[in-house]
Amino acid sequence: MPAIPRQKACIACADSKRRCDKQLPECQRCLDRDVDCVYPQPKRRRRNPTARASQPEELPAIQNHADADVPGDGLDFGDWGAMGVADLDVSLSDVIMPYIPSPPAHIASQPTQRLALEHDDISSTPCPWFLGDETWIMQHNQKQPATSANLELEPFIRAVEEMLHSWVRNGYNSFIHRRLYDKGMPVCLQDAFTTLATYVGRTPVMKETILQIAEWRSSALASQGPCAAGGSQGIRAQLARVHALFVYQFILLFDGSVRSRAHAEKQQPTLRQWVTQMCEVAKRYRGEDVFAQDNRQPQWAVSRFDREYDASSKMWQLWILIESVRRSQLIVDTISNIYDTLTKGWADCTGAVMFTARRGLWEADSAVKWFELSSAEEPLFVPSLQPGPLISQYNADEFDDLVKVIWTCIIGTDKMKCWIDKSNKIIGV
Fold it and tell me: CB 3.0–4.6 Å: which of 82, 89, 189, 412 could bond 240 by disulfide?
């Protein structure tokens, strides 16, 4: 019996990267926008009677519009590939069209590969949109920062201090996700967390003792050997020790004690090295252990709901881990550069990787909510240090708070406030 072709999204919704209800003769979104609703004509394909399976249709290329400063054409990715999309009601290309950055020229010149909508072997499926090699390239701000004065750097230090306090109060912040360590913190991070919590609630008489504890524990942590670097657990272990050492460094560098700063300065090369190693391991990672098939029970014995939940949950957990790596690299290296600028007058900026900037995605507390938010609008996977084209194209309310903190260091407080006020005026706030 011939298969009934699945109704595709209309051309207008596909071009706008919005979800289409696929109603005939016109979808509701086109009716609301008073535009022509045209559905793509299904392709006629000849079947080979002896063939056991048909090849999936090619997906349209995703439009790249987030960074005009990076040369090259957009990569030709069509969906998340590794989510096991054969189990979902609709194709992921109709649900979400995530932003894929333009690669540098040496990558853009290489041939790209389209992703198939359905794939039986998850191990050979191309990686999700947030794991591509080109997204780990250290990109630099192409203009001189607007924060040469100490008054411009101080707000960022205070913002990161508040992030650490939020971690103590609420269990998460802008670079440590609420679900990142939900199965337990590694011992090194437990020590750092308790030290930070004690420091936040310190009394003047206990301040010196707490600083000595931070010095001892940071020295012991920095003297540890190489960290295990295999799979998601290895990356999480590396991320935990980066978070732990960063907590000690932040306390000691910005507390005001000369002795504490001198001690912390000796650990700065180790912290930078760990961040670099963590990003290199994450760059090579493709989620193999996360998406490994569970062979304890056959596929026909698993309900469709369980398969869909398992696929979306795994993708969300993988994104949490990788996004935490990206945001931690950005925060740690930026603080290190600011400290060098304040003490030396200059800093050797190593650049920053891309991260997901869409408001609400980082705060989502379930896989369903995260997937729905990602489906409604593109996740704004953006270069960290190149705000120019994005500020011109988007309203400030579309980005989460971390973006505004980072970009304030690049464009300055006044320009950031102007962007926010202009956005509020447009939306009528």
Answer: 189
